[in-house]
């Protein structure tokens, strides 16, 4: 697999790797479970997910999952992923989903990660990035406009959950 590394000098995004398992399990909290994963992680489950993510990278699949890394030691602060195909998306759209571990929240890292990953998505041919978030998830909702996204529409997920959509047109030269 070609190792992708994106950086803005403050954070680095690189594909998830098996040695991220412990940091992920240690960083997971009720908010990540509720808004992102849907259930508490287990070592076996996280390792299986990371293997799946690596396979997606190796086969140029529709999922590109990154670790959000901070500092010289590239400590894992959270995750961000792109889905180039997903239910409800039009051709050319890419879904962006992200989550930070509690000790890293409130520092602007998610906004930085969304901007970096949007540049990457544009370089991979995406025309528009989409963030879909439950209205009650105020922290994630606040990231979208800071990263240049604008409110668009409201839909309901398969389970009936309301989702607010934020959109951003992409070009290779995104900020």
From TrEMBL:
Signal peptide: none annotated. Residues 11-172 form the N-acetyltransferase domain. The keyword Transferase applies. The keyword Nucleotide-binding does not apply. GO terms for cellular component: cytoplasm. It comes from the Bacteria. Keywords: Transferase. Coiled coil: none annotated. One of its GO terms (molecular function) is protein N-terminal-serine acetyltransferase activity. Pfam families: Acetyltransf_3. This is RimJ/RimL family protein N-acetyltransferase. It comes from Streptomonospora nanhaiensis.
């Amino acid at each position: 697999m070609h190792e992708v590394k994106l950086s803005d000098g403050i954070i680095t995004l690189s594909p998830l790797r098996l040695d991220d398992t412990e940091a992920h399990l240690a960083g997971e909290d009720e908010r990540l479970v509720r808004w992102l994963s849907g259930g508490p992680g287990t070592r076996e489950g996280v390792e299986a997910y990371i293997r799946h993510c690596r396979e997606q990278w190796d086969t140029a699949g529709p999922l590109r999952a990154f670790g959000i890394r901070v500092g010289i030691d590239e400590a894992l602060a959270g995750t961000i992923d792109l889905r180039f195909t997903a239910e409800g998306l039009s051709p050319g759209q890419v879904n962006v989903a992200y989550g930070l571990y509690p000790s890293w929240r409130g520092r602007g890292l998610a906004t930085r990660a969304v901007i970096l990953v949007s540049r990457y998505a544009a370089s991979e041919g995406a025309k528009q990035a989409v963030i879909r978030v439950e209205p009650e998830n105020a922290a994630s909702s606040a990231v979208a406009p800071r990263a240049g996204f604008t409110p668009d529409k409201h839909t309901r997920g398969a389970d009936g959950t309301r989702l607010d959509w934020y959109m951003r047109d992409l070009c290779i030269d995104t900020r």
